[in-house]
Amino acid sequence: MALTAGGVTAWGNFKDVTAAQAIPSIFSGYVDVTATPRYAFEAPVSKEAEKVLLSFIVADPGDACTPSWGAAYSLDEAGSALDLDRRVARLQQLGGSVAVSFGGQINNELATGCTDVAKLEDAYRSVVDRYNVSRIDLDIEGGALSDTASLDRRASAIAALQKDRRSSGKDLDFWLTLPADPNGLTAAGSDAVRRTIAGGGDLAGVNIMTMDYGGSRLTDRSMFDNAVSAAEATHRQLAGLYRDAGMELGSETVWRKIGLTPMIGQNDVAGEIFTLKDAEELSAYASTKGVGRLSMWSLNRDRTCSPNYPDVKQVSDGCSGVDQGSASYATILGSGVTGTASPSAVPATSAQSTRAPAATDNPSTSPYPIWNETAAYTTGERIVWHANVYEAKWWTRAETPDDPVLRGAATPWRIIGPVLPGDRPTPQLTAPAGTAPQWEPAKIYRKGDRVFFEGRVFEAKWWTQTNSPEAALQGGPESPWTKLSDEELLKLIAAATPSPTASVSP
After folding, report:
1. How far apart are CA 445 and CA 107, in angstroms?
2. What is the dihedral of CA 300, 306, 308, 309, to 10 degrees?
3. Average pLDDT rounded to a whole number, residues 389-399
4. Cα-based angle 185, 28, 199 (whole degrees, multiple of 5)
């Protein structure tokens, strides 16, 4: 017996709703990794901030097929200078999830300069594997949008990487992040989606940037209204693009393939301010429609500017330009999703997976000395304790780094993250004899005088005689000597004549 037209429609709607419900909605805020001040994503301030989208991986200026963070740090340099590997592992240790965004408004996305698809695939893989991510974001803007050759290369490389990972039982979801206006995707944006679908990869969705509308903005409408206009138009466009590709998706499923990313507070365009009210309305709208993803630019900016910030009409990397009171954009927007992000960590065999604390810390594999209750530690010194790295916030002795009682300002230690597989002891810098005069017990030293003692250089804080720099070496705050930092010591060595070479010892 043939189904009636109404029955066919009802069955199609049921299948659409069922398919959409199988796809989680997620909230993840962007984090500008290279911005200062550094944003401590590894210590999330709320549940909504536990899912982060680290940005931006771009081509290294010296090699188009080598990934870098913002063209400023290689992956290894970010690991050492920004503690990035350990901070990622720390968030994963806490149960949070990490995704990585490639591209952005400035610098060059990998596919624009890396013309070898195999090398391009390897470049993406190196980032995915290093940070244990199961979701990536491809932020395509500016000239990269009209570079059709790079669009095709990117689609092929990502599709191949996705296929390879899935053959090993590992997921890799990828999103396209594209500019939009109240009319939806631009023509170039639509073409980018079309080419990506044609590349054979399983596109998780299209995230539109509901920000910086400029002349296209509906001036008599709120930023929320402009975002809704952009979302509705993109929904129609995306349904058509999949239909053209031979895939008929239901309305609910298409909504799950749409992401919305506002720029919180003051936008780059004067007069465009995404308010807390806009956030509340967009959150409710996303929940009603079943939007697949909500993000925001950026978690770094999710706070009120301090009184010292002179002009909130100028965009800041570190604050929103809006008086937020106790409110958080991440908390408001995060309430508009119905599901959770897929875990980013992979099985423990991965290079960056976290492990249960070891019963005994091993000096041969620990990147810093093992904590000793009889030793004194000064501000910034790092140690290892129970398979985690800690940094001293001030002078401390005999205070256990992982004391379960002390919290916040009460503890002298700040956890950085777990000891990682492949870690080795950090080389200790020593200065060659002659970098400064050898300390002499009977000699009188005045403020600013420098001496050499046990491979380090010390500077007198005040008049002193017979007081050994030993106390300063151990971190004693009462010592009349202060030990020069590694950075200060390297500068001193470099300026020496003849220029000696520093030595390092494990």
Report:
1. 52
2. 50
3. 92
4. 45
Q: How far apart are CA 465 and CA 100, in angstroms?
A: 56
506: burial class by Cβ within 10 Å (0-12, 13-18, 19+)? exposed
Strand partners, 482: 459
Q: Distance between CA 415 and CA 214 in Å, rounded?
A: 43
In residues, how long is the chain? 506
- 28, burial (CB in 10 Å: exposed 0-12, middle 13-18, buried 19+): buried
Task: For tokens 């594209």, name the residue.
Answer: 178
Q: Which parts of 270-326 are beta strand (E)?
A: 273-274, 293-294
Q: How far apart are CA 466 and CA 82, in angstroms?
A: 40
Topology given in CATH for the domain delimited by 19-334: TIM Barrel (3.20.20)
Is the preceding peptide bond at 437 cis, omega within 30 degrees of 0?
A: no
As given in the structure block, the two tokens for residue 74 are 């290689």
φ, ψ dihedrals at 452, nearest 5°:
-105, 130
Domain ranges in the chain? 19-334, 355-426, 428-505
pLDDT tens per residue across span 443-471: 999 999 999 998 899 999 999 999 999 88
Q: Is residue 405 classed exposed, middle or buried when 0-12, 13-18 and 19+ CB atoms within 10 A define those classes?
A: exposed
Q: How many CB atoms lie within 10 A of CB 417?
A: 22
pTM here? Answer: 0.83
Q: Tokens in use for 257?
A: 């393939």
Tokens found for residue 23: 């796809």
The H or E element spanning position 120 is: helix 117-130
Q: How confident is the model at residue 497 (pLDDT cuts 50, 70, 90)?
A: low
Q: How far is CA 81 from CA 74, 86, 129, 505, in A?
A: 10, 11, 20, 20
Question: Can you name the residues that pair with 417 across neighbouring β-strands?
Answer: 389
Residue 506, both tokens: 């494990």
Homologous superfamily (CATH) for 355-426: Carbohydrate-binding module superfamily 5/12 (2.10.10.20)
Residue 356 has pLDDT above 60, yes or no: no
The answer to whether 19-334 and 428-505 have equal CATH topology is no
Whether 4 has a pLDDT exceeding 90, the answer reads no
Which active-site residues does the annotation give? Answer: 141
- pLDDT digit string (tens) for 259-302? 999 999 999 999 999 999 999 999 999 999 999 999 999 999 99
**pLDDT of 348 higher than 70:** no
Integer Rg of the chain from CA: 27
Bin 146: left if φ > 0, else alpha if -120 < ψ < 50, else beta.
alpha
Give the span between the Cα atoms of 371 and 377, in whole angstroms: 9
CATH of range 428-505; options 2.10.10.20, 3.30.565.10, 3.40.50.2300, 3.40.50.700: 2.10.10.20
